[in-house]
Design goal:
Chain B: This is Cysteine desulfuration protein SufE. Chain B: It comes from Agromyces atrinae. Chain B: It holds the Pfam family SufE. Chain B: Belongs to the SufE family. The complex is a heterodimer of chains A (about 300) and B (about 150). By secondary structure, chain A is an alpha/beta fold. Chain A has helices spanning about 10, 25-30, 45-50, 60-65, 75-85, 100-115, 125-130, 160-170, 180-185, 225-235, 250-265, 275-280, and strands at about 20, 35-40, 55, 90-95, 120, 160, 175, 205-210, 240-245, 270. In chain A, the strands form 2 sheets. A 5-stranded parallel β-sheet of chain A has the order 1-5-4-2-3. In chain A, α6 packs across α11 (about 250-265). Chain A is globular and about 55 Å long. Chain B has a single domain (about 5-145), classed as Alpha-Beta Complex (Sufe protein. Chain: A), CATH 3.90.1010.10. In chain B, strands 1-2-3 form a 3-stranded antiparallel β-sheet. In chain B, a hairpin with an 8-residue loop joins β1 and β2. The radius of gyration of chain B is 14 Å and the shape is globular. Classes of the chains: A alpha/beta (about 300), B mainly alpha (about 150).
Chain lengths: ~300, ~150
């Protein structure tokens, strides 16, 4: 069962308008059968301070990751999680969150690894919902458990590993971290704790496009024309090339992955979730420091 | 650093957390967040007196004071959209309040790691609280050195 798409005019210009809903649409449809609203934030307590009525919380750190392997959930674990959240395989899932939907996009990407078909983002996320004075509640949500099937995760299409990136050198790479991280002045985002990468800099040839450039001041995504101006005109990406995006642990680059894959319709985009915390410490991988992209290393 | 240097009020807060299931620890952190004391009026219009704690993921600013009786007071400000950071600041503002400078300096640096929150909010975020404690101590050391 698929809930109707949001026909908002702004979305029509995107390659996959069905991946977004507006705040007005969600306010009208949040009670629709078959729709589950999910809040996924960077700040793990934000949901408890008030959430969209009926929304369930998914915490990226404790709920989407395997507790001992640096990896996402297994098929069994994901089935158990989604069942407990009241999500069925055919549910329409709308995800929203804080900080321009950064973590919401990350959750959407993980849902996509499991092939959950109808998963959308709330354009503008939590901030816009609140700015518009829409309803929030602190009521606890107790979803009726569902019987979500065990689906094996498919990493091949949208996830890149370190060796994939090495083999990819020479094709477009997008580094979405801050300019300071890109040039090697620091290994973690400004105002973020150090995460212990041994070297600072970027992957050779990667273009620097900080993720937040894709967001407007009200936390919505920039228009199709604005996004084309950045990614197509300025960076020179084209829809049929393989592209890999990375950041520090793969969360910020999920946001850019969403933009390239769903809003611009690029066909072969992967997110390298090992990102700088892995690359910056891995043995025998090349890096570049300074503001220039650098060359493909000789093999 | 040994157990004996942990002041009673900090030990009490730690025990409160450890007695709870992980999900309830988050709710206790939220209570702390809601209880972050308002800034005294003399600090309200003086952002210049505050130091930003860059280890935290959200804008949080602190200033320490030592009263005439030698008691330390930690004042902190963090936005409502950052309840986790507010909670960390509130734990320290309440847990350190009224201690002597020596007592604060003797608080184990790993106190934030002992609250049982690393499983609930990730070790990375706990480092923000360690930053709050570290900067508090540094301010007090500098104040003492300045005589």
């Amino acid at each position: 069962m698929t809930v109707a798409f949001d026909p908002a005019a702004k979305f029509a210009d995107y390659a996959h308008p069905e991946r977004l809903v507006s705040t007005a649409w969600l306010d009208e449809h949040r009670g629709d059968p078959g729709l589950v609203v999910v809040e996924s934030d960077e700040d793990v307590l934000l949901y408890e301070t008030g959430h969209i009525p009926g929304a369930v919380k998914v915490d990226w750190h404790t709920e989407l990751n395997d507790p001992v392997v640096r990896d996402y959930l297994t098929g069994e674990q994901f089935a158990a999680l989604l069942s407990s959240k009241g999500i069925s395989r055919d549910s329409t899932v709308v995800i929203y969150g804080d900080k321009n939907n950064w973590w919401a996009a990350y959750a959407l990407w993980v849902f996509s690894l499991f092939g959950h078909e109808d998963v959308r983002l709330l354009d503008g996320g939590r901030d816009l919902w609140i700015a518009e004075g829409r309803e929030l509640t602190t009521d606890r949500v107790t979803p009726a458990p569902t019987d979500y099937p065990v689906v094996e995760r498919d990493d091949s299409a949208i996830r890149a590993f370190k060796d994939d990136v090495l083999a990819h050198l020479g094709h477009p790479l997008i580094d979405v971290r801050s300019p300071e991280e890109y040039s090697g002045q620091r290994t973690s985002a400004p105002a973020y704790p150090e995460e212990g990468a041994l070297r600072a800099g970027h992957i050779p040839t990667a273009a620097s496009v900080p993720w937040a450039r894709a967001a407007a001041p009200d936390a919505t995504f920039r228009t199709r024309a604005e996004l084309d101006a950045i990614y197509t005109d300025e960076v020179g990406l084209s829809a049929d090339e393989p592209i890999i995006a990375y950041c520090r642990i793969g969360e910020r680059s999920s946001h850019t992955w969403f933009v390239l894959e769903h809003l611009l319709g690029y066909e072969n985009v992967r997110n390298y979730d090992g990102s700088w915390t892995e690359w910056g410490s891995a043995v025998r991988v090349p890096i570049v420091s300074g503001p220039e992209r650098g060359e493909v290393p000789a093999r | 650093m040994t157990e004996s240097t942990l002041p009673a009020q900090l030990a009490e807060i730690r025990d409160e957390f450890l007695e709870l299931e992980v999900s309830d620890r988050l709710l206790l952190l939220l209570e702390f967040s809601n209880e972050l004391p308002e800034l005294p009026e003399r600090f309200r219009d003086h952002p210049d007196l505050f130091e930003r704690v860059v280890e935290c993921q959200s804008p949080v600013f602190i200033v320490t004071e030592v009263d005439d009786a030698g008691g330390v007071h930690l004042h902190a400000t963090a936005p409502a959209e950052s309840p986790t950071t507010r909670g960390f600041a509130s734990i320290l503002a309440q847990g350190l309040d009224g201690l002597t400078v020596d007592e604060v300096l003797a608080v184990p640096d790993d106190y934030p790691d002992t609250l049982g929150l690393t499983v609930a909010v990730s070790p990375l975020r706990i480092r923000g609280m360690a930053g709050l404690l570290g900067r508090t101590k540094r301010q007090l050391r500098e104040r003492r050195a300045a005589g």
